Amino acid sequence: xxxxxxxxLRHRMMPLLVVLQVALACAIACNALxxxxxxxxxxxxxxxxxxxxRLIVAWNIAPRGNPWPPATLRQTATELHAIPGVVSASLxxxxxxxxxxxxxxxxxxxxxxxxxxxxxxxxxxxLDTLGLRLLAGRDFSAGEDALVYKGAGLHTDGPTIIxxxxxxxxxxxxDALGKVVxxxxxxxxxxRTVVGVVAHLMRNEFGQDDREDVDYSMLFPGTxxxxxxxxxxxxxxxxAEAAGVRKAMKAVVQRELGPDMxxxxxxxxxxxxxxxERMLAQPKAAVWLLSxxxxxxxxxxxxxxxxxxxxxVQQRTRQIGVRRALGARRGNILRDVQLENLLVVGAGILLxxxxxxxxxxxxxxxxxxxxxxxxxxxxxxxLMLLLGQLAVLSPALRAARVPPVVATRSV
Amino acid sequence: xxxxxxxxxxxxxxxxxxxxxxIVVLTGAxxxxxxxxxxxxxxxxxxxxxxxSAQLYEPQIDNWGPANLGANGEPxxxxxxxxxxxxxxxxxxxxxxxxxxxxxxxxxxxxxxxPFTVKGYAVTANFFPxxxxxxxxxxxxxxxxxxxxxxLVISRRLNERLFGGADSVGREVRLDDHDYRVVGVAGSWxxxxxxYADDRLNDNDDHGDAPDVFLPFxxxxxxxxxxxxxxxCPPDYKGTSWDAHLHSECAWIAFWAELPTxxxxxxxxxxxHDYATEQQRLGRFSWPPNVRLRNVMQLLDYVHAVPEQTRxxxxxxxxxxxxxxxxxxxxxxxxxMRRSTEIGVRRALGASRGAIGxxxxxxxxxxxxxxxxxxxxxxxxxxxxxxxxxxxxxARLVHIDAGLLGLxxxxxxxxxxxxxxxxxxxxxxxxxxxxxxxx
Lengths: 411, 439
Description:
By secondary structure, chain A is α+β, with helices and mostly antiparallel strands. Chain A has helices spanning 2-10, 13-44, 70-82, 126-130, 142-145, 164-170, 242-257, 272-315, 317-325, 330-366, 376-400; strands at residues 55-59, 86-92, 104-109, 115-122, 134-137, 158-163, 180-183, 190-198, 217-220, 231-236, 268-271. Chain A has 2 domains: 2-43 and 281-408, no CATH class; 61-266, no CATH class. In chain A, helix 2 packs antiparallel against helix 8 (272-315), helix 2 crosses helix 10 (330-366) and helix 2 (13-44) packs across helix 11 (376-400). Chain B has helices spanning 2-15, 17-45, 81-90, 127-130, 145-148, 156-163, 217-222, 242-246, 262-282, 296-302, 308-337, 340-348, 353-389, 392-397, 402-428, 432-437; strands at 56-61, 95-107, 116-123, 135-138, 151-155, 172-175, 178-186, 213-216, 254-258, 291-295.
């Protein structure tokens, strides 16, 4: 060990540069990968919606003056359902992958006091139209779907269907069916009884980071009154019929609601798949950016270690020759160079971890960011050590090939 | 001498092409990554109205009360009609403007052409001089003319479309079953971000097109032309008619005051405070005055017009460049120290330490310049590719200009020279005798 550490201390600059480089790379890569993982959440989490190409959504429908009465909107939904090829039609207040309208609330497990922030979708036949997978319980009954609320419906008692993730969060003990969820934490908050649990349903705005949060959603049956921007969704039988249904849908909405729409705001008629693409475009771009930067940083570091080590090996050719002449085997030389790299990179990692945390703290102060989970550190360390070993392999092999005869030359 | 050093540098760089290429690529990639993100950041945080933005202020008045405001207690960005009218009539600033966004369907005179939607703003007459709107033909309507008249200012683009770009002053345009008379054709005017209609700042659906039409504010209100966006009503608002909406506390009018000096701004803030106090005394507000006065850049900062992601990517790119630089330090050190013998010979022949230092600095600057050229190329590609990484609205704002390219080369050279300082110092300290002896 001594013969490895001593030269490191004598020629400080070369190892110091490697340490610095590893530390910087480690700090940047850790933070970039942490951000990357957060951006990945909405991309990799299932949104729960079945056959995105078969779901067409009409949104951005803005009334001139007062909101349309629920009866008019219901009538429109009924006519949408009557379009040939349509399996199910819904009228809703908000929609996944659409953030123009959002209903979010702090919901509380009744009696237990466990809280969570959840997105609430209010509308009729949502289970069928969204194509959600029911894991337990039942769909809303026709009577429940026919309900018209006085306001949005957040303050009314009734049934609800929640996602499995939310059920697990609110009722960790197990079966959520039949349990009551309070909408809000006030004493008079509405009570919603869980009648069904669906596999997934993504909320319509993704928070910055919370991983499970993105799948915390609830469905309420019925129709909201006085809701300024209604959304219609229809599910078609097959993707082939989607284009035709879309055209018919546009005609129906224009005929029923067109005269009372604000001029200059054109409703959007989009397939859910397209909406999803659009909504995820930004996280995807961020993922590309972050992964690209991380890759380049790591690549540059590997190249840097390689360049510096090979220079260093070259400088010490004579010493290596002497050691070989004095009986060191090739394996010894190889191992020594690798061990040396391990020490230097290890020091770099230690410094890098501290730096990563410092950067994270600084970012947390300035931006809405959560703390870097410590689990990143061992993985990051392992990755850097492996990359360090990879980088040193070729210079180390070259060092091991130095013939003992070098020691006798040019003295 | 410098020329000799440049020649020496060129020869030395050519002698180890792989190492040189590596340094050049690292420098180029590092500088390009920070330049691309810098271009985006620059585009996003640019002053939308240079020279004027410090004089344009947006007053905010809390007409909702603490119970209805967000947790931060900030008043709405827009004003209610009541407050906007009161401020307009008080004339507390040399110039004031009120505006709201409208959308209308334009029916071409030529019946064979289909109607289409135009977007624009209902504005008071002072809007045009306040926001430096240029005119190709005609001009703004006069203050009296705007009151009852159906005057209209159209954009150059709409003028092209309707009248083939001819002087259309006095011609008629039919919007929503009503004929308007063109009084002016606005030239190119499209400040970005669209700060003047503040609620559209963070709207991703807005593609940043210039407004098509401007029509008189008072007339638009009389005609009950509905706002297309940004009506914020207190939760208890139940009104149904236009008239009820006008007299409600709904905030929907963007309001601006031109205040040439900071003293004017202070005075105006005082006026706002007095106004709110008066409203409290009259019983309209049951809370103490809560008013704000922000100029354009303060407003952009307040509404976070620059997305966090943009700043983050810039920071990330800076980190990347730092990593590249540390790498360059190591590589230059390796490169220079390999030539200890050469240095020893030069020193023995009488070259001073300074001369050696200058020679190697010149070489480093040369590498930096080449890296900078590569950086320019990569920056160009990066900005071109920004459309894939950022939203189209952002990508459209990002552009390359001579300044950015010059900056790229300069940053590259400066960074490389900085990175070379330590290796050069080491090179200059090489002992001539020692080097000559060992060979």
